[in-house]
Amino acid sequence: MKLSAFADVCLRTIMVLATPGIGQLTSREISDSVGVPYNHVAKAVLELRTLGILQVARGRNGGATLSNDALQASLGGLLRKLDKRTDIVDCSEHDAQTPCPLAGNCRLRAVFRQAREAFYASLDPLTIEDICPVAPGSPIKALPFPTVRRFS
């Protein structure tokens, strides 16, 4: 199972904000801290605010902080909400000209759906607090951000 780059940025954002002694940070400061482009972090902050994980203050002294209940949220539950894909395998458009010849008798999509749910279920007992740094400082920058493939 592979997380989307968006879910990865969301988790990094949470981990930075949960680091002891960090407090409130702007999207730009989070971006610099994790080595991820600003626009990706800004989208992650907006989504995490919508999900109730972050509190965001706008303006000159604004920034993002974790909400009161964020650290106790289920990791599996959060990743389910962040994963917008309907299927691991996209069989509907493998070739724009012809439909998949196995579409009427394929059980692979259902198997992958079950596998994805088992992956999330294994993360359900974990909370966001379980993945966050316990010491001051941010070791998160050492993680490489996934590269986006360009198609020509």
What is this structure, in a nutshell?
The protein has 152 residues and is mainly alpha-helical. The protein has 6 helices and 2 strands, in the order αααββααα.
Question: Which labels suit this protein?
Answer:
single chain, 152 residues, mainly alpha, two-stranded antiparallel sheet, disordered C terminus
Task: Kindly describe this structure.
The protein is mainly α. Helix content is about 40%, strand content about 5%. The protein has six helices and two strands. It has a two-stranded antiparallel sheet. β1 and β2 form a beta hairpin. α1 crosses α3, α2 packs across α3 and α4 crosses α5. The protein is elongated and about 55 Å long. The C terminus is likely disordered.
Order of helices and strands: HHHEEHHH
Spatial strand sequence of the major β-sheet: 1-2
Give the structural class. Answer: mainly alpha
- Helix content, binned percent: 40-55%
List the total number of helices: 6
Strand content: 5-15%
N- and C-termini, Cα separation: 26 Å
Query: What is the residue-mean pLDDT, rounded to a whole number?
Result: 82
How would you characterize the largest beta sheet?
2 strands, antiparallel
- From the structure provided, what is the oligomeric state, counting identical versus distinct chains? single chain
Total strands: 2
SSE layout and pairing:
Layout lengths: L4 H14 L8 H8 L3 H13 L3 E4 L5 E4 L8 H8 L25 H16 L4 H4 L21
Antiparallel strand pairs: 1-2
Helix pairs in contact: 1-2, 1-3, 2-3, 4-5
